Predict the 3D structure of the following.
Amino acid sequence: MKTRDLWFRSIAGFVFATLLLLLSPTALFATDGHFLHGDGPVNEAMGGADTGLCLDATGSIAWNPACAVKFSGRRFEFHGTIFMPWRSLGSTVDANAFGPSTPAVTLSGTTISHRDTSLMPGFSFIYHRLGSANAYHAAMLAVSGFGVDYDQNTNFSNPILTAQAPNGFGFGRIRSNYMLVTVPVGISRDLTERLSAGFSFVPALSMLQVIPAPFAPPVTAGSTMPYYLSAGNNAPATGMGASAGVHYAMGPVSIGVSWRSPVWFQKFSWDRKDLTGASHAMNFHMDLPQVVFRGNRNRRPQGHPDRCRSPLV
């Protein structure tokens, strides 16, 4: 009974933490870069080389679910990645580029993006009962995220950030915010003493904000020139994918191969108004591509460093 209570408390804590983090994804995951090169501090330090190593629960679930069975008992890991992004945007418009005296002189400049330091937390859980060939795992992983915020330029020193036509040559203020988290849940099994296999369902959630939205056709209502509307609110999109992997270990050598399917997402959708108040439906679709991982380790004699490889295809 005591073991059952501990198991239920572990699952309840995991579910509560998942809901808590997903309720505030924008503040937690908006950062720079599209894909992280690893999951958790161990994998990030090694550039995501856990496919054949099985070093920790987080990297194992993210890179090769067959590794989850290598851990015994209950294993819970919580981690966070802090990003302090620095981005700049520069542009140049030559004199007379749009006609005589438009502009009268060459305009050129650079603007620094305003972005706060961002925390990307995640956690993982593995349950492998002693003596069982099966292990069960679940995690919440921050896969990617980026964001920029460039002020509108009012003195024409950086033309791409000047107001949209006819009052300028650019887009005005440029702001973007994107995040993507996955929640892999699955099972792994020891097929033999040396060979294991694993599988995960991978539900996912992403959010996107783009100001202005160049993926949608410009409109002309209320203006003498075409202009872009803004996808100003953080639009959510849910998705689903899967991952599978195998791991083989023999003496000092271990090899892992895994495949992550595309994560197929719904469309991001916005309903925005133009200068006349008319509504426009805007949509944008972006899936997470499939990836194949391969990793191997050759443990060398004492005094020589191990060789670890994990190329991506």
About this structure: The two ends are 47 Å apart (CA to CA). The CA atoms of residues 272 and 280 lie 5 Å apart.
